[in-house]
Structure formats: C-alpha cells, structure tokens
Amino acid sequence: MNIEHRIAAKLSEERARMQRLVKDHGKFSIADVTVEQIYGGIRGVPIHVTDVSHVDPQEGLRLRGYTIPEVLAQLPKSDHGEFPLAGGLYYLLMTGEMPTKQEANQVEIEWKVRSNVPDHVFKSLQPMPAYAHPMTLFSQAILALQSESVFARRFYYGIDKADYWGYYLEDSLNLIAKLPTIVANIYNLKYRNGVLVQPNPKLDWSANFAYMIGKNDPAYMDLMRLFVVLHSDHEGGNVSAHTSHLVGSALSDIYLSCSAGMNGLAGPLHGLANQECLRWLLDVQSHFNELPTEEQLRSYLLDFLASGRVIPGYGHAVLRVTDPRFTAQREFALKYMADDPLFKLVELVYQILPGILSETAKVKNPWPNVDAINGMLQHHFGVKETDFYTVLFGFSRILGLTTHVVWSRAMGKPLERPKSLTTDILEGMIKSK
Ligand code: HAX
Question: pTM (2 decimals)?
C-alpha cells in the first residue's frame, strides 16, 4: 500500500542521516546525568531519537512537526463531521506527509478489510471476573491477538533484518484495523450485557467505535474523531511509548509491544488520570451539590492539597503551559455543551487551580493537561463508566505507539540495554570526584 511505499522511499536517506550522525559525531555528549535525575525518574534525560512527534515544554505537542491546531485544520475530514479521519492521521504519523483525502480513505479501507477479530480474542475475555479493569481486558485482547503476528511467523522462518519493518507495519495495520471492534466490545462486555457488535462498513474508524457502543449521535462520533487525534501520540519518552519501544527493541512484535505499552498507560500517573479526573470532578460536584462560588472552591482545593493528594488533570512531566490538547477539547465543549454543569465546574477549576498550584513552589507545571477535560466530554454523551476512559486513550495511543515501533525497526535500532548502578558504586563515583 501507499504508506509502505512512502516509508520505503524515505528509508535510505533516513538511515544514511542516522549513520552519518553516529560516524561523524558518535562521541558528542548530549547530556550529563545527575544524581537528582537518576533518582528522579530519569526526568529530562534524552534517551531516544524519534521524528514521529515532539513535546515542547512551552508549546506542547507537534505531530510530525505540525502543532495540534495545524493537524486539526490540515488533515482530511470525515464527510460527516468537522474532525479528521483516523486513517489520515495514521498516514501522517507513519510517513511524515500530510495525506490527501484519497490517501486517508485508502487507509480507512485497508483497515475495514482487515477488521475481523478472531473468535478466540473475545473468548479469552469472557471468563474474566466482572470487576476486572477494562484496561486489563484491553491489554489481554491485544496479547491474545499476538497469535496472528505476521512478523513473529516470518521471523521463525528467517527474514532479512532490513525487511523487519515491513512485517511490523503489517502487524500494525492488522492490530489497528481490529481496535474499534475490540474496544467497543470490551465496553459491551462490561456494561451492555456482553452483546457483541460488528462494525458498520459505511463508517470511518473513529465513528465505528461510537456506533458499536450504541452511540449514533453525530456529535459524539465527531468527538471521537477529535479524541483520537489528540491522544494519538506524545513523543517517545512517556511511559507507554517508551515501554513499547523498549519491548519492541527485543524484536517482540507489535502485539507484545503494544500490550506492554497499555500496561504502562493503565497507571494512575499516566493514562488512568482521565478516569481519576472525572471521578474527582464528580466528587467535587456532589460535595457542593451546585456550582460552588470561587471562594468555596478555592478553600476546597486548598484543603484537598493540604491532605497530600494530587489533583488529577493538572501538572505534567514535560509541559509548562496549558496543554493544547486541553484547549482543543475545551473549544469542543464550548460549542456543544457550554451549559453542562460539569463543564462549568471544569471551567471554574481552570480559573482557580493554576494560581493555587503556582503558589506551591514544588509543582513545576500548574496548568491543565489533556486529562482535565476528556472524561467530562465522554460523560456528557452518556459514556459514564469512568474506568473505561483509559481504554479510549489506549485505543487512540496505539496509532502512535505502533508508528514508533515500526520506525525503530525501519531504522535498525538495536536492543535497548541501559545500565544500572549500585548505591555503593554511585557513592564511590561521587567520592572519587
Ligand atoms: N496536584 C498536586 N500536586 C502535584 C500535582 C497536582 N496535580 N502535580 C504535581 N504535584 C506535586 C508532585 O506530586 C510533586 O510532589 P512531591 O515533590 O511531594 O513528590 C511535586 O508537585 C513536583 O512534581 P512535578 O515535578 O511538578 O511533576 P512530575 O513531573 O513529578 O509529575 C505528573 C507529573 C503528571 C505525574 C504530576 O503533575 C501529577 O501527578 N499530576 C496529576 C496526575 C495527572 O494529571 N496525570 C496525567 C498526566 C498527563 C498524562 O501523561 N496522561 O497520560
């Protein structure tokens, strides 16, 4: 398909660029790692090069060099809404080129053709207890699909290293094609009496998820198109992207890599924050019964922080401004649900909390991140099962994760193997200086 040709056309130049850097500047030092950093989650230490996306602390996310407003404006749109087709987004992430509508539609068609989910996937989920978290089911479903890995089978019979990436791309297309059916039916299994729904061939990838959970509202379908763009990638250093990359570096296939990435996304400091954020907003709402005054909310927030808890949806490991993904979702909310009491609460928190967090010197970023609002939007359209929200995040993030993994194989990146120290060695290093 066209994506494969576009990647192939770029590869020799990209590989030569990397080889030149290593040959001519191999000993150039990028960063010194401090004791603070090694004990502080390796924060800020560059560990990886990827051109798929980049997060600038002051500007936020760029996907293949395009800001969020540019991506939303320039990607080909669905005929039935204002927001882009996921097929075009995937084309952009994989090739670095802004697709035409025809190219975006070709990816959508390719996904439809590959969308059938083998029976054993849902059969493996059905015996799980009702209280199993949907992220567990999601990761499990991806792992169950590993039986279908084209790369794993080809590797068994022997393949040229230079060709690995093509099989990874096949696996990526196959996995992503099945995601709307998998994700929607995890929802149905957990919250709609287990009814298994098949995709509607007339709908695009993002809208099909909405259709399969019984939401046919065109505004919700468009929200899902927006949601998918905004959550699709956030450079290579975050927990899920780094995990997938690391696992993929062992030549574990796309399914193994993405299932591992989803396990990282399931953590409350990463993807689970959207679930926590909506639960927190609902708690605040039920505490006050009606929209609090500024003073009431300020005092509530101060008490909450004084109890040592974090407020989900605020702060970021890299960003130092309001997340543009928050801004894009806020604009959607202003258009479709300006009078929703929960949105009014989101607005009031946005007005007050950054000031409060700034006063506590320790928070490096007092501004809202993507998760401060995404749950509220789902809640508005009746998707109220908060524990499902991280699955939605994963649904879209796999577009980015698989792109990183495909390109890592395309560039022939080796097994990742950083070094750990013992406390004695570290103390010895400090003494000897
Ligand atoms: N509320 C209260 N305290 C906060 C805070 C918040 N929203 N954000 C940061 N802090 C605190 C930290 O807990 C830390 O306290 P200690 O020194 O006592 O440990 C201090 O401020 C410094 O933290 P930081 O350097 O500003 O932030 P980190 O890079 O360590 O962590 C986090 C970034 C996103 C994990 C953090 O801001 C947080 O816990 N936020 C709430 C959870 C959240 O919204 N997560 C989603 C982030 C977006 C994402 O990745 N989604 O997938």
Answer: 0.95
